[in-house]
Amino acid sequence: MNEPAADGTSEPVRVPDHNLDDLVATVERLVNRTEAQGQMIDHLRETSQTTTPDTDAEGDTAPGPAGQGGAGDGGPESVFILALDDDAYAVELHALTAWVDHLLLPVYGREITTTRPWCAQWHEHPEAVARLHGLWLAWQQLTAVEAGLAGPSLWHRDHLDPAWQQLRAADGPFAACTTNANRPHHRLLPTPAPEPTTPGA
């Protein structure tokens, strides 16, 4: 900590020249993280505002469209990608894709094998989109400064490992997709048909 000068002011912080490059890189990382966290906070703030029911002049709850915020404001009730409308879904999927392509796969992708398939067209697999989006939301929360020093470790243990095991399992959502990096393949597996409903049930 800097000692105050005789006139009561603090001396300026002095950084050795050989540490300037490290300092610049650290500041850039902090700025980027702050911007990302700011966007996430704005996103969460907008979402929380739409989940609080609006009231009319008499104090009654104003109805809104199903799956949206009160009074028909068009806001989502959840930050989860499957709850978003088409436009918001497209925006969120674009951001998710950037995270998957530039962080998740380069760091955690590992080799594609018959026991660890992958699909380059993962965004066409609803289960994969849902799991990856949940993983990304957890990453944003648990890599924030507020999560504490154990945050990243908790993200690996509680979120990355189980989600990755499900996604890359031999019988997972990519079971019919690429098992050899030299032979890309994509196929959606059929899902169980919903039970027919009977009138008046």
Topology:
Elements: H1 20-51, H2 86-108, H3 126-142, H4 151-167
Helix pairs in contact: 2-3, 3-4
What does this entry look like structurally?
The chain is an all-alpha fold and 201 residues long. It has two domains: 18-49; 71-190, no CATH class. The protein has four helices and no strands. It has helices at 20-51, 86-108, 126-142, 151-167. α3 (126-142) packs antiparallel against α4 (151-167).
Q: Briefly, what is this?
A:
This protein has 4 helices and no strands. It has 201 residues and is an all-alpha fold.
Low-confidence stretches: 50-72
Count all strands and give the number: 0
Tell me the number of helical segments per DSSP (H or I, 4 or more residues long): 4
Strand content: under 5%
Q: Which class of secondary structure composition applies to the elements?
A: mainly alpha
Radius of gyration equals: 24 Å
Q: Mind describing the biggest β-sheet?
A: none
The proportion of residues forming helix, as a percent range, comes to: 40-55%
Which descriptor suits the 3D outline? globular
The mean pLDDT is 77
Oligomer: single chain
Distance between the termini: 73 Å
Order of helices and strands: HHHH
Number of domains: 2
